[in-house]
């Protein structure tokens, strides 16, 4: 599928990020999106938070009918550029975030992010919402929550000729690791709580 400007949407491919041998087996084959969706269902069912994946409006322009009982979409376009993957409410805060995965072991490529998403993150921050990216380093089986301020800083430096990725070591130092848990799987709100604690201290 394509955005209105003709560029293709990058599809995140996922792996697992288990914390133990038992978790490693149970989480095998789960995508980052599936982990987040399951966590959100867990939060919602227990009135912890109301966070959902945003639907993306699509315009279908070409459909093939190989047989009467089936239809195959051959061509479709995004009606508008998407903002971020998820949003909702947690502890009275607007929560807005993107989920990205990389096969890179040493850095997070900024090519995974679009300019309109950076603009959206800036708007959320301006309105005092919680904006962040959940990054999974698939080969390392590690998942992190990184506040958008750091992403925006690296993006702006890239625009001025700086590096086009965020080093893995910087992610480890600046972001919050998200471990797997039995119930919520990817219990990312624990990391959000740490962000809130930092905000309260300031």
From TrEMBL:
It is found in: Cytoplasm. Its EC number is 3.1.21.10. Residues 1-26 are annotated as: Disordered. The gene is recU. Belongs to the RecU family. Endonuclease that resolves Holliday junction intermediates in genetic recombination. Cleaves mobile four-strand junctions by introducing symmetrical nicks in paired strands. Promotes annealing of linear ssDNA with homologous dsDNA. Required for DNA repair, homologous recombination and chromosome segregation. This is Holliday junction resolvase RecU. Its cofactor is Mg(2+). Keywords: Cytoplasm, DNA damage, DNA recombination, DNA repair, Endonuclease, Hydrolase, Magnesium, Metal-binding, Nuclease. Gene3D superfamilies: 3.40.1350.10. It is an enzyme of class 3 (hydrolase). The record marks 100 as: Transition state stabilizer. Binds 1 Mg(2+) ion per subunit.
């Amino acid at each position: 599928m394509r955005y209105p400007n003709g560029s293709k949407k990058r599809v995140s491919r996922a792996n697992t990020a288990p914390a133990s041998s038992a978790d490693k087996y149970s989480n095998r084959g789960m995508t980052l999106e599936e982990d987040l969706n399951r966590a959100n269902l867990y939060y919602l069912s227990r009135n912890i938070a109301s966070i959902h994946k945003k639907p993306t409006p699509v315009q279908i322009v070409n459909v093939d009918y190989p047989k009467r009982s089936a239809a195959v979409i051959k061509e479709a376009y995004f009606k508008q550029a998407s903002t971020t993957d998820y949003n909702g409410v947690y502890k009275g805060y607007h929560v807005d975030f993107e989920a990205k995965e990389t096969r890179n072991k040493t850095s997070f490529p900024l090519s995974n992010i679009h300019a309109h998403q950076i603009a959206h993150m800036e708007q959320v921050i301006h309105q005092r919402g919680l904006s962040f990216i959940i990054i999974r380093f698939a080969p390392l089986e590690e998942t992190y929550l990184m506040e958008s301020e750091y992403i925006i800083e690296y993006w702006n430096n890239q625009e001025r000729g700086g590096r086009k990725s965020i080093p893995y070591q910087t992610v480890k130092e600046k972001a919050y690791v998200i471990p797997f848990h039995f119930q919520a799987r990817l219990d990312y709100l624990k990391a959000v709580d740490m962000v809130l604690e930092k905000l309260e201290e300031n």
